[in-house]
Design goal:
The chain contains 20 helices and no strands. By secondary structure, the protein is an all-alpha fold. It starts with a helix and ends with a helix.
Amino acid sequence: MRRLTSRLYFWVLIAILAGATFGFLDPKDAVGLKPFGDGFIALVKMMIAPIIFCTVVLGIAGAGDMKKVGRVGGKALIYFEVVSSLALAIGLIVMNTVQPGKGFNVDPASLDPKAVANYAKAASEQSATDFVLHIIPKTMFDAFSGNGDLLQVLLVAILFGWSLSHVGAAGEYVHRLIVATSLALFAMMNTIMKLAPIGAGGAMAFTIGKYGVGALAPLMFLMGSFYLTCLIFILLVLGSISALVGFNILRFLSYIKEELLTVLGTSSSESALVPLMDKLEKAGCPKAVVGLVIPSGYSFNLDGTNIYLTMAALFVAQALNIDLSLQQQLSLLLVAMLTSKGASGVTGAGFITLAATLAVVPSIPIAGLALILGIDRFMSEARAITNFIGNGVATVVVSRWEKELDYDKLNQALKG
């Protein structure tokens, strides 16, 4: 028992249960705990950019080969596209099988477009060109500001790491400085993660207190279908991929259980990004691969978001009695493949991306999103967890693809 209570995940789990109970029993006061969750996530996000910068720079400078960076990035993107497509297809199959939206019989004229107006506006402002140009920060330091995202940090780190590997002896001092800085940043992150129970408990109390368990009942079938689909994807798709690479998905989940509980409590996969990177390195993945795959995966490998996009869009169509042909559904899938790439680093990203997807499928009114607006917050946990696990598996796969995965470390880590 003493060993169990010394584990962080034990206290995170206790905090999540306590927060949910408090939110149910005293919703008014529970809502006031929101700053605890927001503060913890803010502390974590404060550390992400500099840690990723140091990790990528050290990985590239150590490799000294820009061709390797391009090769790793190319393999990662191929993997992302294949697995993301599987996630979209699984969502499509489940929705056509269980059809949770049938029977709602909602009159489109009764929908209030104002309820989702802000999301629709945000979605209309996104374009492929804007997304690409946004990767380039206005200045090098803007990438590390609160408005920057991981792809900007990744771009700056790749350029800096490559340059550092080509300046010879003059760069040795800078290299040693970054090594020392990296150690200090990870020590800071370990300290911050001790606050995870407070952050997770506060966030869960707010969620239950704000939206209430009663809000789940009318749409419980959709939520249950979504959570089940995510579970199937993790166990069957990611489990099969893991088996092919040479490790057990259940042992991998056990290995990152502390991080999973943090993600569950905060509904943010970023809240455990840095600890995941640290654990992947300890499990035998090279620093350069971890530093490249994880940040890019947070924009391009959003398996949970992809499942959500197809299921939510088809649910709205079913609830409005709109019959979509197979061709229309496949078109929806192709559109979702593109719109999901801009889903990271934006508040309410999943819902905004869904609005962007429906905007190019005129047969489904965007106002129909109001049907699931109330439960979107409860579905974000499954989205975040699935995205998180997917990026962890992707890193191990690319490490194996590069023939740099240390199986001795991996087996030792997964066996505990």
